[in-house]
Amino acid sequence: MRLEKADLMLLGTVSLWALNFSVSKYILDHGFHPLSYSAVRYLAAALLFVAITFPRERSLRIGRRDLPLVAGAVALLFLNQFSFVYALDFSSATTVALLFGTLPIFTALVSHLVGIEHVAGRFWLAAAISFSGVALVTAGSGGSLSADFGGDLLALLGAATWGAYSVAIAPLMRRYSPFRLSSILLLAVCVPLLLAASPQLENQSFDFYWLVWVGFAFAVIGPLVITNLLWFTAIDRVGPARASIYANLQPFLAAVIAVFLLSEHLNAVQIAGGLAIAVGIILSRERKPPLGPAE
Fold this sequence. Notes:
By secondary structure, this protein is mainly α. Helices cover about 75% and strands about 0% of the residues. The radius of gyration is 18 Å and the shape is globular.
């Protein structure tokens, strides 16, 4: 496969997504409350997207018939963000990243359940192998009814809600540009995020070490803004099948980054679980990939 500009875009996108696990974990460990972080981050990203989109399209209008779909997508995105930040707060970045590797499996399950696509018998074998990998990753992270185990469950909920979100916005992607859709959804999800975060924001100190603010700027501009622009541009050039090759690298690249940057431990049981999840993804590869991981 000849390396093209689009391939570099995809590799850059996946690298930014992978790095975000460690950056967000660092930020949460150094004083940002989970919902405060998510609400302020999404508000900043929404304002940036509006600043990019409105001069291009001169409108953020969404048709009335699409409002129920938008409302459903916003609810799923809110649940996804709640799950993501608390999973990182309770568990390690390596564990959360590996468990997010189940995203393609959850996306296929949701698509099958709502009747969008039929999955072949091989998919159910792939799902069984992937979820056996989930069991191994969870066992390797502690395995008892503890904060770590709660974080593992939230990571799975994060993957499941992003899979459902990817399915929910697919019809909207056919009618609106990624810029307009991202602007609307990011703005809309800020409302429930800010409401849910209000108790934490009241007690949130913003007197952080400078490196936390550097990480926060990265978490807004990199995984939420730049990656959206790169991802959809690259998919338009090379198609979703080729993009999926890079998307599948994300959980394992994120786990490796967390080991080096945060000095987290990745034991043999978790590695075996990650490999099982990867085997499941490879076996299910006949279908299209999700629209991009939750960050």
